[in-house]
Design brief:
The complex is a heterodimer of chains A (about 90) and B (about 250). Chain A is of the alpha+beta class and about 90 residues long. In chain A, about 40% of the residues lie in helices and about 30% in strands. Chain A contains three helices and five strands. With about 250 residues, chain B is α/β, with parallel strands linked by helices. The chains are: A alpha+beta (about 90), B alpha/beta (about 250).
């Protein structure tokens, strides 16, 4: 059963994060909301990238940032920081 | 002076409306502004949204209100009495060095000017909204593919707010932050009735685009090829529940 977190940080859109953990790593993650990611298909890559990652904020942020730069992915209304924040909040709610 | 294509469509089905925008993005190379309306009430949801988080699906199904996933991100929208615009433009000329947020702002400026010419004091609310008295009158969503942008958005003429709140599971956190969400042209200009308000709006929008981009319009319909692609997209995406329900929570 995944843990659901919703965040609306200033200047951003509403971001829902459904996440599940196994042995302090991310076992499942699903991002949704009224934000924009360009290209849109990159959301699957972001979700895939996070699977198996230890739940450490700096590590999560660094992994996503590297992917965005490498694949020239642009996010509008959602940030790397918000995704990491949501994961950490969900982890604290276990 | 450059010439853009202007397409003005009568009210069509929701799936066809989205399919034509998709076809324009896929195969159109000439700058095209399309203005259209909706033959029946419908909900569209953003590419990244979960349908069951945003929409009261059972009510929509029981009342025959289609729910369609867009190719663009952004939020869930209740469409009915509105003028919808879509702009397809190569990422060159005025959009050549435009970031995504810059292009939202640029197109919002054009729409705001159109509303100003109708005597409406509209303002831009980043990222993708236009507001009057703090309430949303227009929202837009953009995607970029193969060197082109598609931006489409609404200008609300009238709306059944009660129905909108029934169909959409409006997030209370968002409502608290952004207040009572919408205002329509009929709220602002109740003296203008019937078709006249649409005609005034279409004129104001096309004049504003022509002025801001220093272009003229040639009124044309979509091509046969665009129609074929739209028919494909309508069947394979917007009337296909696998697409419309695609991003489901577990």
């Amino acid at each position: 059963m995944s843990i659901q977190v919703a965040l609306k940080n200033p200047g951003e859109k509403l971001v829902h994060i459904d996440v599940d953990f196994k042995n302090d790593t991310i076992a499942y993650i699903h991002l949704s909301g009224d934000f924009f990611i360009y290209p849109e298909e990159a959301i699957a890559e972001i979700e895939q990238l996070l699977l198996g990652l230890p739940v450490e904020r700096a590590l999560i942020e660094q992994h996503i940032l590297t992917l965005l730069q490498r694949k020239n992915i642009e996010m509008v209304g959602i940030s790397v920081s918000t995704i990491a924040q949501g994961i950490m909040e969900a982890f604290a709610k276990r | 002076m450059k010439t853009w294509r202007l397409i003005i469509h009568d009210a069509s089905s929701p799936s066809w409306n989205m399919a034509v925008d998709g076809a324009l993005l896929r195969i159109t190379d000439i700058p095209t502004l399309r203005l259209y309306r909706w033959s029946v009430p419908a909900i569209t949801i953003g590419y990244f949204q979960d349908i069951e988080k945003e929409v009261n699906i059972n009510l929509c199904n029981s009342e025959g209100v289609p729910v369609i996933r867009r190719f663009t991100g952004g939020g869930a929208v209740f469409h009915h009495h509105e003028l919808t615009y879509s702009l397809v433009h190569p990422l060159q000329g005025p959009f050549g060095k435009c970031s995504i947020t810059d292009s939202y702002s640029l197109i919002a400026t054009v729409l705001i000017h159109a509303l100003h010419t109708m005597g409406i004091d509209a303002q831009y609310r980043p990222i993708n909204d236009i507001i009057v008295d703090g309430k949303k009158i227009s929202g837009s969503a953009q995607t970029r593919k193969e060197g082109k942008l598609l931006q489409h958005g609404t200008i609300l003429v009238a709306t059944d707010t009660e129905k909108m709140f029934q169909y959409l599971t409006i997030d209370q956190k968002k409502v608290r932050q952004e207040g009572n969400p919408v205002i329509t042209l009929k709220d602002i200009m109740p003296q203008i009735t019937g078709e006249m308000i649409y005609q005034q709006l279409i004129q104001a929008v096309t004049d504003s685009f022509a002025k801001h981009f220093n272009i003229s319009f040639e009124v044309l319909d979509i091509s046969l090829q665009e129609k074929d692609v739209a028919a494909y997209l309508q069947t394979h995406y917007f009337e296909n529940q696998q697409w419309n329900y695609r991003r489901l929570s577990p």
